[in-house]
Structure prediction request, 131 residues.
Amino acid sequence: MTDSGPVAPRSLLEQNEIGLLVRALLEWGGPAHASDELARGMGFTGADGLLERGRSYRNDLKNDVPIGGADWARILLATEIVFASDLMGSGTEWRTTTGMTDEETIKLLRGIQRKLGGVLRPYYGRTPTSS
Prediction:
């Protein structure tokens, strides 16, 4: 898959993979709290922008709305950080807050990373600033 425009979630991912992304984005409004600097580093306007866009992304994922490459990059990066970081993400509390084990999460996450590879290729090593 190349950067040929927005792509519907179900054309790339399984339902459980979409569910992981939705749940991870929800974590930012609960136990996880990003600083403005971290949120900007992920390509959002700040912490409030992460929460706003996170709500929008969750709806898009659930409703199979096509998502552009920069937005896929933000979704994936926000998921990776909220899962792994104990400082700003859910980290060691991930299982408690999501009900998902680290093992099942990393297995799903690796699958998502592989499936999104072509869509995300233009964003590797770059902050996803354009939609």
